[in-house]
Amino acid sequence: MTRKSVILLVAVLMCLLLPLASLAEVDMEGDPLPTLDKPVSITVRLNETDNDLLIRYTQPDSIAKLCNDGEDDWEAPLIELDIKINDGDWTFNRTPGFRTETLEAVYEELLTDLWPGLASSFVLYPGHTHQGELNAFDSWLFPEWLGLESWDLKNNTYSFRFRYVYEYDFYNETTEEYGWKEIVSPWSDIASIGKNASGKVPEKLSAPANLAGKILTTSDDKVPYFHFTYTIPEDVQEANKHVEIVSYMDWKVGSGKWATEGGELIYQGGNVVSGVMDIDPIDKGGIGEIDIEKNTYAFRMCFEFKRPDGSNYRSPFSNVVIMGVDAFSKTSSWAEDIMKKAFGYGLIPDSLIGKDLTQGITRAEFAAISVKVYEALSSKSAAPVAANPFTDTSDPEVLKAYNVGITAGVSKDKFAPNTLLNREQAATMLTRVYKKVSMEGWTLATDNKYTLSYTKPALFSDDSKISTWAKDSVYFMAANGIITGTGNNMFTPRATTPAEEAMNYATAAREQALTMAVRMVENLK
After folding, report:
1. Would you say the pTM of this structure is higher than 0.90?
2. Among 59-63, 102-106, 280-284, where is mean pLDDT lowest?
């Protein structure tokens, strides 16, 4: 085919297509009308123990975009809700066409015999609702709006559907009238409640995934704030179509307690799950002060929804995100994730925040960790002993450990707080924590009356070097995966020669001690 023939063919095709394009429907300003996709889903549930229903709408992205792009109410599509009882007819099944009244006015007439003036109950403006990435929202429906005293869910089945309606100004040349025309989407699937209808309330939810955060500053006054992103699991996306899922952020400052242990969670604004969350800093200074650069902050997220009986279901928590002052100024690569867990579990005492965790741990530092483990396992707060028995320390964490029975010191009045702890001492102190939590009436003084129940593993090659008083604790810890050997079936319990003492042989590093603490919480909770 010659070039001239191709040009001629294209010209012919354009002439054929132009009339078709001119037939595309436009509004009075000549702008093309939008395409209205079918609703994603509709569900219905009873609002707790009240006598009203919650209709949950989930919209396609295209509709949400129209709602967000519309500058005025009439530029966004409307939601038209329809209802039927049992096998009866749909109540508001209309045929779209030219009208001299708005859709809301039409419904006011339809509802005159039921409950006047409630057209907004069946014609909604989705552009006015809070919507996250999942484009879902609720609206209420009361029985009085249909002339009913109550919803009889035992004897009746109530079914609902909805569609989108886009109204636009129109001049009817035939009747020479100004009014409105509309385009409509397909109807949604049908949602039912009551007799012969089953609800879709989820039984559980996955935790938020891939929580990540960073510190940003506002563009105007450069005030720092926390910015988070997270992934919404597929089961949560599906559940959000049926019930309102809310995102909550749990937080803590330093080695303090999580907000769930006594404070308030931070909820996602607008009660939506959006995959993004911004939080103002927790103010730890005076009025107008922000100590975001002076504290270590930990965050974790969860999802929550309300069951029909009014109770709340909360998902597991996400991974922990730590920001602000670096809690682990130096940590071995193998221990980084475990240290985040330790911080998340509240096991890192203030004395170790910002310290080099690859260094050996002192007796005082390990006592503080042991107290944290005790509090995590028992859900109780430890208190210092009233009368300090030691002359070489007044550390409150040491006095808590003494009061609980975790340690008795190296003599009657000495604790040796700065002495490095060896591995068999670590196993013994953590075993005492377990005994205190799990054995009613146990005290350090009555320890010989209590027996640990476990299957003893094979002996370590250096079993003869383990002190007699520590052997049961060492093998109990090994049996439960709390503390492991050092290779070649060796435990390396303690220094037994002056040379070994000089080289700090068998001492436990801070990160190793915290690893044991994490395993205690995870394996023996």
Report:
1. no
2. 280-284
